[in-house]
Structures are given as structure tokens and as C-alpha cells.
């Protein structure tokens, strides 16, 4: 007996369910055990292939999954199949296969072994159906990280056909930012044998990125080596997007809440200021003329430029204009142009976006945006830097602006009321103020008269302040005597309403009982027709001690501060009034311990 015959006899007598296939996949031979189990004679299997015996479900897997994998790797290990006997009985098996090659690598055939599952075959069938039809994305990879099975859900979500997937590395389908680094990670996972809800990003055929959570478990052989990894993928792309949208909404809500709180605080402060200003007090002809102008322009949308000396009540006139206008229900936003650092002017007016400059940690609403639908009051308009005046003019002409650091054009609808104690026409001639902006602002000028032109109003204003300040300080009401009335009328009040109000407040503080100590409050005032008459020009000046000289200097500085509303520098500052440098004036303020008192209420004009 030849060696080939002995081998054939040995093969056929094996108790295992084995078949031998030629290079084209047709049966060459089978063990007697296989023939007995499937009910065929040996001459009947010639011209048949294993897939000819397979159930419909297994046939698809054999053609689409197993044969491509076998051709590529040269082996199969324990893959589930259903074969039908000659009588039509379904036999559930696990199939393993290996390709046989000659010494020079020629393809000789394939040896396939089947392990019958018996009752486990039903479970395997149910598992197979579940695997294919589950709504989860499932795939199986071999020990090299190549995909051997995918379910329909995986193919649907990723947009591929099965033949485009099976046999490729799983990393081929990961997002570009992960695939380069994940090959080693996949190898580590296969060696480890498990994975639990690990975030991974996959890329669909159309280029869309899927954000997923991946779990995996290993199938091992008898030696404990991983043969396959069963991988389940949960698509969390929409959930993550919703979470990001929610986080962004929360952040935006927090930003808006903070912004609204700032606006609320600002408007609350403005309301308080408005309440403290009270009503416009006076019956003089000069005041009535100004009020007639105010009433005439209040109902229009024209820009208004309020002229007047420091302390005459220009801000109160702006409040009155707003309250009498159709925009009274909108905001009245004030900007003191003299108090804004030059580098922050644009941000103050137009706002900025986060990161626009150092320290811009969040978006900020500008005054134009805050005043939308209302009135914007620009006090001390003459202090606006020349380089910003063009941008201000653009907003007035077009109603459009951009926040600092942002290219988005925003619209605003504001009525502009400006105020100044400077000669803007002179500034225009000097080249320090734009002529076109000046004419745009001064559509309707209003001149607020100084208190020296309102002699008939001084006593009425003083009585008003006494009443308001006593109420604010919880003091019993005080009254002005005839002598005090004469004293008030004898002074020219260069500091105007502000100086009068400060004197009355000081008098209330110094008073005890029901007597208003106006004499003490006006003791430090130097000016024409004050508490004492001026000495004749030829009179010999009094000799003073050093202490008296210092006291006089202190009183003079205090009077200048009150007239200038405690502003030290600038053309109308206290230092300018007394002829000192601002630094020298500040040093003497510290020397005399001069500090700005708490501002009371009860403003009026």
C-alpha cells in the first residue's frame, strides 16, 4: 500500500468531521464520520462545495465574511455555520480551516474541520440573529486587529458595504486624529482582552466623525491566546453635541446674567441719581427761558448740546430732557468723558469681546448698546480724544458700530445729549475737536444759566436743599433766618448750584438744635460780597501768624475743590483755579488732610 493510500485510509477513519477541498473549494474527500453525519455517499459529494450545504443565513456569512478572511489569512478558527444534511436536517457547527500549500507556496487545497454544537447550535443561531439585527454597532476583529465580522447597524452608521470593511484594520475607520496613534492601543487592548466604555472617534465613509463609547471582550483558545475580540460601539455623537450645546447655553446664560447684573446695578445707580436730583427748582426769568427751550426740544429726536459752567446742573437738565421725551421708558445712560482713560474710550462706548486686549476676560456691553432705545448722555464731551471723535460721528450718522476686537456690525437707536463747560467752537479752531462732530452734536444748544444770573432762585434753592438734606440725615427741619437769606444773596456763587448745595450740607452738619449754622459753613468762603466786605485797596493788610496763613490756605483749597467738584486736574480743576500744579496741589491736600466728603442727595438746578 502506497503512502498516499495509507494517508487516505487514516484520514477517512478519523472520528472527526473533516473534509478536504481542492483549490476551487470543491470536496475532494471527507471522513467516514462526516459522511455518516450528513447522510452522503463519498461519490455524491464530488462537485459540491461546503456553501452548497449551508443554510441561507450561513451561506451569506461564508461568502461575505469567511471566504475573504480565509483567502487573506490562510486560516479560520471556530466560526459558526449551519449545514444541512442530505435529509434536510440543520446541523449547527463551529468550523475551523487551514489552507495547505506546497514547499514553493502553491495553493494545494483546504482542510476544514467541523465541531457539532448540538443544542448549542440553537443558541448560536439566536446569537447570530441578535448580532446582525441589534441596534448597537458590533464588529469582530482577529488577533491582528482586522475586522472579520460587522453587523448591519455598523455598516448603516458608517456608510460602507460589507466587502469594503471585512479584512481591513479597525484603525482604518478611526478618525484621523486617533488612527495614527491607536494601532498600538488596539494591540494592547487585544492583549489585555477587554475594554469598557472607552471613548473613541470613528470616521464614516462620508467623512463625518462619530463620537462613540467602545466596549470589547476577547474569545480565547485552549492556550489562553486571544483569537477574536467582540466589540460593541455606542454612538454618543448627538448626546455629546447636546451636552456641549447645553454647556454653551449655561455659559452664555451665566455671561448674560452677569451682564444683566452689571446693567441692573448701573441702571439702579442711575435711578438713584435721578431720584436724588429731584425737581428743577426756581422761578427766575433766566431759568424759565431755559425750561422753555427744554420743553420745545424734548419731544423731538434731535441731538442736544447743553452748555454751562461747572456746577450749574447740566446733568439734571439731561435727566429732564429724557423724562419729557418719547424715550422716557427707555434707559438713560451717562458717560463722564473726563473720567475715562484714553485707552479705554472705545471699549467704554462700543464694548469689547473676550480676548480683545489684555484683561478682556469676558464680553462687555458698551454704553451705546446699553442705551439702545433710550438716551445717551455724554458729560464733558470736550474731553473725548480726537482719534475717537470720527467713530462717534459714524455712530451718530449711521447708527452702527463694532465692539473692540469684533468684526460684527451692530445697530443702535439712541438719542444723544451732550454737555460741556468748555468752548467747543474754540476747540474746533484749535484743531482739538472735529467741526463735523460739533455741528452734529449742537443741533439744538441749551445754555444753562449760572447761579449769579438767578438771584431770585438762590433762597428757594437753599430752602430746598435744607429740607432734603435734613430728611436724608434724619435731622429735625431747619429754617433760614432773614439774616441768612441776606447772606446767601450777598454772595455771587462762582461754584453755582454745586457750591450752594455743599455749603448747605456743611451748614446742616455743623448745626445743633434748630439753628442752621450758615455762618460757620460760609466762614471759609473767599469771594465778592461774602461774610465780610473786602478791605479798601489802600488799607493796610492784616498781619497773620503762620498758623493763620496755613488755615487760610486750607480754606482756599477747600473752596476751590468745592467749585471744581473735587476734580484736581484739567482746565476747570481746583489746581488751575488756585494757580498750582496738580501734583503740588495733591501734596498739599495730603498735608491738610483734605478728602472728598460723602456725597449727599438733594441735587437741584
Number of helices: 22
Could you tell me the number of beta strands? 19
The CATH superfamily of the largest domain bears the name P-loop containing nucleotide triphosphate hydrolases
Major sheet description: 5 strands, antiparallel
CATH topology of the largest domain: Rossmann fold
> How many angstroms does the end-to-end distance come to?
133 Å
CATH class of the largest domain: Alpha Beta
**Average pLDDT level:** 83
Report the sheet-strand fraction.
Answer: 15-25%
Low-confidence stretches: 271-278, 526-541, 600-605
Going by helix content, strand content and strand pairing, the class is alpha+beta
What fraction, in percent, of the residue positions are helical?
Answer: 40-55%
Describe the structure.
The protein has four domains: 3-124, Beta-Lactamase; 134-235, PAS domain (Beta-Lactamase); 278-446, P-loop containing nucleotide triphosphate hydrolases (Rossmann fold, 3-Layer(aba) Sandwich); 451-535 and 543-592, Helicase, Ruva Protein, domain 3 (Orthogonal Bundle). Helices cover 43% and strands 19% of the residues. It is built from 22 helices and 19 strands. The strands form five sheets. Strands 2-1-5-4-3 form a five-stranded antiparallel sheet. A five-stranded antiparallel sheet has the order 7-6-10-9-8, sandwiched between helices. Strand 6 and strand 7 (147-150) form a beta hairpin. Helix 9 packs across helix 10 (314-323) and helix 16 crosses helix 18 (496-510).
